[in-house]
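Need tokens for this chain, all 121 residues.
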Amino acid sequence: MGSIGQKINPDKMQRAKELRRQMTPAEKILWQQLRGNRLNGLHFRRQQIIDGFIADFYGHAAKLVREVDGKIHEQQAQYDAERDKVLLARELRLLRIKNEEVKQELDRVLMLICQACFEEA
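Here are the structure tokens for all 121 residues:
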């Protein structure tokens, strides 16, 4: 897994691999649309390690981190806030989408991702 100019902790690398194997149903649905540059030629990586945090999906060219949030995020608000602060300090943009949105409104979600990628940073 390529990193963005950073030294990667081997434990984090292993955890990212596990997360790729154990994607949630919503993450799998979205990955099918994003993989292989399928969404308007945009390149995304899944489970990208950025400054010790693991982002669900990362589009390097657009500097966009995409998170699919499920119930777990209600219990880890402090962790998410810390991660968001670190990512924003890197001048990355965040797009949070709920599991239900991916499952029920996939076309709208894909449109939001496209818009976020093509708008000026």
